[in-house]
Amino acid sequence: MSVELLLEKAGQYLPPEKLAVVKDAYNFALQAHQGQLRKSGEPYLEHPLQVAITLAELQLDAGALAAALLHDVSEESNIPISEIEARFGPEVAQLVDGATKLGRLSWQMPGEVKRRDILAVRQQQAENMRKMLVAMAKDLRVVFIKLADRLHNMRTLKPLPSEKRRAIARETLDIYTPLAHRLGIWELKWQLEDLAFRYLEPRKYAHLVKLVAGRRAEREKFIAGVIDILRKELDRVGLKADISGRPKHIYSIHQKMERYAAQGKHFNEIYDLLALRVLVETVPDCYNAVGIVHSLWHPLPGAFNDYIANPKPNGYQSLHTVVMCIGAVPLEVQIRTRGMHQFDEYGVAAHWRYKEGEKVNKHSEESIGWLRQLIDWHRELSGAEEFLESVKTDIFIDQVFVFSPKGEIKDLPKGSTPLDFAYRIHTELGHRCVGGKVNGRLVSLSYQLGNGDVVEIVTTKREKGPSRDWLNPNLGYVKTSHAREKIRQWFKKQERAENIEHGRELLEKELKQLGLRFSDREELAKFFKYETTDDFLAAIGYGGISVHHIALRLAAQQEQPRPVTDVARPKPPTSIQVLGVGDLLTNLAGCCHPVPGDKIIGYVTRSRGVTVHRQDCYSIVREDEKERLVKVDWGQPDALYPVNVKVEAWDRVGLVRDISSVVAEEKVNIAGMSFTEHDDRTTSLYLTLETKGLSQLGRLLAKIEGVRGVTGVTRVGDEATVKTSQPK
User: Fold this and answer.
1) In 3D, which of 344, 285, 280 has the Cα closest to residue 311?
2) Less Cβ crowding at N or C end of the chain, within 10 Å?
3) Which is nearest to 277 in space by CA: 212, 221, 327, 321?
4) What would the pLDDT profile of 321-358 be if each residue is shown by its tens digit?
5) Which CATH number fits domain 398-491: 2.60.120.200, 3.40.50.1700, 3.40.50.720, 3.10.20.30?
6) Residues 6 or more apart from 605 whose CB is under 8 A from it?
7) The CATH number of 641-720 is which of 3.90.660.10, 3.30.70.260, 3.30.300.130, 3.60.9.10?
8) pTM
């Protein structure tokens, strides 16, 4: 690839004097990378050249193109940033320095990292995310360079080992495609997604490509007929428009197939592999065009979205509708102006024009307002993990648009509640919130808001603080990290003694529920890197660390063997590893029913292989022949284990139904159930639940405890062996 293509693309929008800067940067990079080769065998210069060409297609300024050409000279050729600054100025040097630093950040989990080091690795990943996003907030062109750099790396992954390819592809799908989506750069997003999907699921990718190619002629014929009908109608009313079919990319088809499979549908039933795109001159033309589409074909209820009046958080604007088209086939139609279309393809980059004395236009500043918000969160949040949590929950997630009673619009992450809305308006409003009205109707504080909802917060006049239950992730009161942090801050300011006592109560309750024992509280505090036990308990009390997280850390293992089909006699989980011995027949002990996450030990029997017990099992503690005990470990994930649970509740009609509904929502099977009625109008329910491990079990127990009338939920051992019976 020669530099001529780059200069041709850049020359379409850059003046000659700016083009000269790009050419000078190319010559400098050519000399710096002289003799260097990539792993594919091609000249190293090919990589920065391709990165610059991608940015030229986005029509970025000369400084960004120069920095793209130079972004590896410091790292690969040991040329100091000061030399780049002396040659090309401080702006280009800062971009090169930013891109070089981002290139050193690692997001991948080391293959052989020890369990005790996982937390440290994740903290480092969170810190890396913070560095990248804060760098973006300072100059967005840095991330444009990084995205283009990743795109070319994905295109040239083949020479790398298979494991390395998969790791880079996973990183791309987890970090860079959501970033491209949030910036609205569709052109980069779909290419990164398809390339990542190709390496992560090569068989599925090849199968989909074959399926799509097989029906291409049929779809193109269908779309051509629809376009002809719509064009004649638009011409009849004098509305000028460009109409085209937009094919969906492979990864989006894969996602759609996953959703269709859940509904029992086959690929042949997916008709909206093509969307119709209509480009018009003005905003009024958009609304006129959608009216004509609806007059030709019947619109599907609830399938119209006005992203012109309510743009997406990344600035995307368009009208979307789905109509029952020729032959009762559903077809998506997107209608927008040509300016909106330019933004759809290139996102914020479409407005990122650096001119003399002018940085960026107003629309671009508005579209990256979320990046400015990162700086505020960066100052507010105490640690890297909290910052990463806020990014994942408040930025890299779909949004809903809701209104205040005065008509002010607020965008919130999908799944947000009235409490999230209250805290978004004002912290004090959240603290005093006692209820919420949505569209004039009272709703629970855990109600999930939808697009167009009008939200009114009901408050109390007296001094009131938040409830500690609001911080329980299993109860669903708050979605946004912003609201969660404000609640934590309130509790942190309360009396330390109160927080310590409440933290102790929460910890004891959680450990008891999950059947975990940990007597040394001082050792536990040090395990979580708190200097004293009181500091540790106080952090639990004000919500700085969740008891569910503590329980999972203590469990340490999340591996689970193959599914159990016979609850009374669990099949031997072949994936349990008998350490230092090799493959042996293993069975789960019926006395303590260990599940993934429990600390376990094996007992060598005389005729039935190794029986796996919990380490605190009474049978093991009382065992005299200690030499028959062997170390065992959990094996591979994705299995179900029977766990006995005791539910204490006030007896009432519908109790079993409500508990069963909660269990079903968590996608857990009730393998056995029995109950005992007491004279004081209470009842004890004994359930055998097939769970995947402590993580799922902890969530489920918290939800069961929230059922009306339930007074306590605990995991039990052999004394609560259940018999299957019909619920009353």
Assistant:
1) 344
2) C
3) 321
4) 888 887 777 788 999 998 888 776 655 555 444 333 33
5) 3.10.20.30
6) 611
7) 3.30.70.260
8) 0.50
